[in-house]
Amino acid sequence: MAAPEPAIPRRPSRRRSIVLITLVVLFAVLVLAVRWIGQPSRVAGLILSQAGKALGLEITAAGASEYRLRGTPMLLIRDVVARQPGATTPLLRAERIQLEVPWATIRAAGNDLTVRRIELDAPHLDLAALQRWQATRPASKTRIPTLTDGMRVLRGRVIGDGWSVDALDIDLPALYPDRALTAQLRGRFTSGTIAAPFDLDAALTRFAANAGLGLSGDVSVESSPWSLPMRLVLSGLVRDGNDGMGVDVIRLGAVARYRNGDTVLPFVFGLAGPLRLHSGELTMTPLGFALRGRDAMPSLHARGGFAFGDALALRLDGMIADWPKAWPALPEPLQSSVSALPFKYEYRGRADLSDTSALQLQRDATRFDGHFRLPEMLTWIDTIDQGTPLPPLAGQLSTPKLVIGGATLEGVEVDFAPAPGEAITP
Q1: In the prediction, which pLDDT does 55 show?
Q2: Can you tell me the distance from the alpha carbon of 16 to that of 26, in angstroms, rounded to the nearest whole number?
Q3: H helices of 322-382, where?
Q4: Is residue 290 part of a domain?
């Protein structure tokens, strides 16, 4: 009987070797991936790098980052800076940005722009840098995202040319491109010595051009020692065109009070016209304006224009209904006249209206052409009961006839000069 042949050990098949190697490699990749994913700064860096390439921006986040994958994915980044490559001024800075995006949006790879919520802490937006970046972008249709749980902005700042909006808080409950939306806006507009804190409720018929806009709430214009608190209501149509962003068909009405020390002058006013923001300048031309006052505040209506950029420019051409009864009485025959007083007003200077204003005023054949400074004029109004009867004006008055102290003067021409120490120049 032949002896049995010795057993020869079987070599693993080639297929089993490949499978084993593949598993080892996959395990190694998984370990490295888990380690990489465990470092939020790297995840945030990759996402910001891709977003920057898509937008033509350099976007960095120097602070600690966080993310969450369970439930609704969330990315939180801190100390964010976004700028054009090579630019010295960032268009956006933010202490913190939190973004919550559903898995369906991530899987859609840009075809779905649904976002659950966006939060921004202390974002600083530079309008000039933003407009320079926008000028480099190719023309394309703007896609509006859906924010199912809205957006919140805390302590924001918008920086313009010579002005800023500070302490800006925005609460937007939700945003759907084809639906009406509401928001709350709070902040403080500042330019030079002028400040204007505001607390407004806003509404849009939809987030798009030609949508209806509504604003209502409290605004106060302040420049020590006076203030002008008001309650306003505004409506219009949103516009975004070659002549800039803005609002068409503006209708604004406000109940206001001028306050300076013990002086309180209530009045109401309204204005209408197209508002534009273009190349850093805010304009409203043509402008319609009406004011209804009492006591020392006149009633008037006018048309003109307004521009605010490196300086404030204002032009009004209108009619004062009557000489205010609280002002010093005019000499005859001006006092007995029931004619309205046509006027022209022009100003260019600092935003607080403290530079020289030009004024032309007429009643019947009597005409005044001169200049004044608003702070001095307001002080005169505040002390009208105990001060001089002559307003602080510089200019010329011409009239066919005046009756003063029983004497009749004909062909009168009077030059008004500023008081000693005052300098009112054209």
Answers
A1: 76
A2: 15
A3: 374-382
A4: yes
* The pLDDT of residue 39 is above 70: no
Looking at residue 364, what DSSP letter applies?
T
Strand pairing of 181-191 and 151-159? unpaired
Q: Which domain holds residue 354?
A: 279-426
C-alpha–C-alpha distance, residues 335 and 322, integer Å: 10
Asked if residue 108 is part of any domain, the answer here is: no
Contact partners, residue 411, CB within 8 Å, separation at least 6: 400
In this structure, which long-range contacts are made by residues 385-393, counting pairs with CB atoms below 8 Å and at least 24 apart in sequence?
A: 389/328, 390/328, 390/416, 392/418, 392/419, 392/422, 392/424, 393/359, 393/368, 393/424
Residues 93/97/101/105 CA torsion (nearest 10 deg): 10
Segment among 179-188, 240-249, 293-302, 412-421 with least mean pLDDT: 412-421
Do 401 and 422 touch, CB atoms closer than 8 A?
no
306-315: per-residue pLDDT in tens? 998 878 899 9
309: in domain: yes
User: What angle, 0 to 180 degrees and rounded to 10, lies between the N-to-C axes of helices 14-37 and 40-55?
Assistant: 90
Beta bridge partners of 81: 60, 93
Tell me: the pLDDT tens digits for 247-256? 998 999 999 9
Nearest by Cα to 71 from 42, 99, 100: 100
Q: State the average pLDDT over residues 56-83.
A: 84
Beta-bridged to residue 127, according to DSSP, are: none
Count of structural domains, the chain: 1
Q: Measured between alpha carbons, how far is 197 from 215 in angstroms, rounded to an integer?
A: 15
pTM to 2 decimal places: 0.79
